[in-house]
Amino acid sequence: MIIVGVKDAKIRKDIFYLKHPFQILNADLIATKKHIIHAINQAKSKKPITNSFWMEILVRASAQRQISNAIKIIGVNPEKEKSNVCIVCEDKETLNKLINMIGGVVDDSVLELTQSKMENIIRAYNIKGLSYDYNNKDELIKRICEKISIIEVM
Q1: Domain locations in the chain as residue ranges
Q2: Rounded to whole angstroms, how far apart are CA atoms 23 and 68?
Q3: Taking the model in full, what pTM does it have?
Q4: CA 47, 30, 153: angle at the middle one, nearest 5?
C-alpha cells in the first residue's frame, strides 16, 4: 500500500470518477502516517461499514460511521484553490496518474503534525481533555487511533 502526502494539489471533480483504486484525503486533518496505517489495518480486519475498501479507509480515517460525515471531516474539497492531500493507493501507476491530475509536489511533511494542525485535528475529531501543546502529539495520534478502533461500537 502506498501512502503519500502531496502539497498544493488542485483537486478537480473528475478525479472522483476514475476507475483506479485509491483514496484521497485532506492531509491537514491527518495525524501522521500512523493515523492512515491504522485506518487501513482496521479497514482490512474489521467488519466493513461500507461496500468499498477505499471508502472504508475514508470512514475509518475520519472515525465516522456515516460516509457523508466522513467526507465533511477528512474529504478533499474541489472548490479550494490548493490543498494538501494524502493519497492512498496500491501501485505506482495509480499514484502517478493521480499526481498528474492534481499537480502539486509530493511531500510527506504535509502528513506530519504541527501546532496549528493539532488544533484543527482536536476540533475536527472532537478530542476532549487534550491541550493543543505540541508535546502532546504522541497522545493525539494515540487518541485518533482509539477513535478509529471504537467506531464499531458507536
Answers
A1: 2-153
A2: 15
A3: 0.92
A4: 30
8 Å CB contact between 13 and 77: no
Q: pLDDT at position 135, please?
A: 77
Q: Which of 50, 76, 46 is nearest to 65 (CA)?
A: 50
Rounded CA separation 99/113 (Å): 23
Element (H, E) at 40: helix 32-45
Q: What are 49's three cell numbers?
A: 461499514
> What count of Cα atoms within 13 Å lies in the side-chain half-sphere of residue 57?
24
Residue type, 89: C
Q: What is the pLDDT of residue 154?
A: 60
The residue among 145, 113, 119 whose CA lies nearest residue 131 is: 119
Stretches where the chain sits below pLDDT 50 are: none
AA identity, residue 112: E
CATH code for 2-153? 3.30.2380.10
